[in-house]
């Protein structure tokens, strides 16, 4: 980490303070716009928005616990080509990690984007976010401060006191901050009635801090302690989740049962930020089977599960994206039948990334595993090359 600055909370509101910071970003002549979650006029709807008018920042809200989509692919699209200035992208840690993976896959660029990460306590999935709104937690922008304080004290997180719990992906996320962020908005361990911190992570982040003219401060030990506490708690949750998932999927029959509700809608593929193919093989003629083929397969066992190819589809997806999965959970969030696809995809990704000693989205300079050949890799399989 580089320079740390302390920002005094404006009128007791962390959100207003962050919005004021965004206003300073837009006033910087090098900044073309800000990509940030924003409340829409429809009640409770928070969606990523590209803001160029400072007057629209009063609805900007990176604290709201709504996470309807991973914005990485949107940022990738915005950075593929020339920009008239720098784009400030305010993203969750998992979104930044997904964007970094897309850059490695030549789907986006880091050249004209400033990645800003907000310390992340977690978010609800779509269903639980609606349930939270129904408890009286109407998430207008001014309500986010109250939510943030409850999340910081643990009042919101796991399902407690009649309140819905955060998405399982968030509960199992061991990366509450983004290593590749240019600038961190530090909330962990802060007295949220008094101050938050800005922490530069790269020379680009250092540059905008200098232009903002903020005063340096010592990085809070409380923030590091909170990051460590959250990481340990979430890692324990993740490991327990992995054990449960392994027990439910450790045979072909169990795996078929686990995925039995799949209707081949492919929502998980569409929602996945690192599934980037222009044309998926599963929507081509390869899987446009003929009627006689279906009947032939049915006659082999007397019955054929319809639609077909669901198990093959998920196995192919696991093989395709396990090195790049960042565990954002949008696959489960998009599933109409509540299949816990996040759990099994995270399990496969963890095994793959551990085997390669790789952490998706952590380091923009580190090449993806399958892009690098190491002659002494996996000697237990190759037998060595001596």
Q: Strands, helices and their partners?
A:
Layout lengths: L3 E5 L5 H14 L3 E9 L6 E6 L20 H7 L7 E6 L1 H12 L8 E6 L7 H9 L9 H10 L14 H4 L11 E4 L8 E6 L2 H10 L8 H28 L3 H7 L8 H5 L19 H11 L8 H12 L8 H5 L6 H16 L22 H4 L4
Parallel strand pairs: 2-4, 4-5, 5-6
Antiparallel strand pairs: 1-7, 2-3, 6-7
Helix pairs in contact: 2-3, 8-14
GO molecular function: iron-sulfur cluster binding; metal ion binding
Organism: Desulfocurvibacter africanus subsp. africanus str. Walvis Bay
Pfam families: Fer4
Kindly describe this structure.
With 386 residues, the protein is α/β, with parallel strands linked by helices. It folds into two domains: 4-237, no CATH class; 261-382, no CATH class. 40% of the residues lie in helices and 11% in strands. It contains 15 helices and seven strands. It has a seven-stranded mixed β-sheet. A hairpin with a 6-residue loop joins strand 2 (31-39) and strand 3. Helix 8 crosses helix 14 (341-356). The longest helix has 28 residues, at 221-248. The two termini are 41 Å apart. The relative contact order is 0.13.
In short:
Helices cover 40% and strands 11% of the residues.
Index terms:
metal-binding, 2 domains, 15 helices, alpha/beta, Helical_ferredxn, metal ion binding, Formate dehydrogenase, 11% strand, 4Fe4S_Fe-S-bd, seven-stranded mixed sheet, 386 residues
Low-confidence stretches: none
Radius of gyration from CA coordinates: 22 Å
* Number of domain units: 2
Individual helix count: 15
Outline type: globular
Sheet-strand content, in percent, reads 5-15%
Give the % helix.
25-40%
Strand order of the largest sheet: 1-7-6-5-4-2-3
- Order of SSEs, N→C? EHEEHEHEHHHEEHHHHHHHHH
Distance between the termini: 41 Å
The chain-level mean pLDDT equals 89
Given helix and strand content, the structural type is alpha/beta
Strand elements, count: 7
Major sheet, described briefly? Answer: 7 strands, mixed
Keywords: Iron, Iron-sulfur, Metal-binding
Organism: Desulfocurvibacter africanus subsp. africanus str. Walvis Bay
GO molecular function: iron-sulfur cluster binding; metal ion binding
Protein name: Formate dehydrogenase
């Amino acid at each position: 980490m580089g320079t740390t600055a302390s920002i005094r909370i404006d009128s007791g509101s962390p959100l207003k303070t962050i919005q004021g910071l965004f206003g300073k970003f837009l006033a910087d002549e090098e900044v073309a716009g800000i990509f940030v979650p924003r409340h829409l006029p429809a009640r409770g709807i928070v969606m990523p928005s590209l803001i160029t008018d400072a007057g629209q920042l009063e609805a900007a809200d990176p604290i709201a616990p709504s996470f309807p989509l991973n914005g990485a692919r949107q940022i990738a699209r915005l950075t593929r080509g020339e920009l008239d200035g720098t784009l400030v992208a305010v993203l969750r840690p998992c979104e930044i990690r997904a964007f970094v993976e897309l850059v490695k896959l030549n789907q986006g660029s880091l050249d004209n984007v400033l990645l800003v990460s907000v310390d992340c306590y977690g978010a609800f999935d779509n269903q639980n976010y609606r349930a939270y709104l129904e408890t009286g937690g109407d998430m207008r922008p001014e309500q986010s401060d109250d939510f943030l304080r409850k999340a910081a004290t643990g009042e919101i997180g796991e399902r407690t006191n009649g309140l819905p719990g955060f998405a399982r992906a968030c509960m199992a996320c061991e990366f509450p901050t983004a290593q590749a962020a240019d600038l961190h908005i530090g909330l962990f361990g802060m007295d949220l009635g008094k101050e938050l911190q800005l922490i530069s992570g790269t020379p680009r982040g250092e540059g905008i801090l200098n232009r903002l003219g903020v005063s340096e401060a010592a990085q809070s030990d409380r923030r590091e302690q909170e990051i460590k506490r959250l990481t340990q708690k979430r890692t324990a949750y993740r490991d327990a989740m992995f054990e449960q998932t392994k027990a439910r999927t450790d045979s072909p029959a169990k795996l078929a049962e686990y995925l039995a509700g799949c209707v081949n809608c492919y929502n998980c593929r569409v929602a996945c930020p690192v599934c980037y193919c222009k044309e998926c093989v599963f929507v081509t003629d390869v899987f446009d089977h003929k009627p006689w083929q279906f009947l032939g397969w049915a006659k082999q066992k007397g019955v054929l599960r319809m639609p077909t190819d669901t198990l093959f589809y998920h196995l192919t997806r696991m093989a395709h994206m396990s090195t790049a999965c960042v565990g954002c959970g949008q696959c489960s969030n998009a599933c109409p039948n509540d299949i816990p696809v996040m759990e099994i995809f995270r399990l496969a990704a963890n095994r793959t990334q551990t085997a390669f000693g790789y952490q998706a989205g952590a380091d923009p300079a580190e090449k993806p595993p399958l892009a690098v050949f190491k002659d002494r890799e996996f000697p237990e399989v190759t037998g060595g090359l001596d």
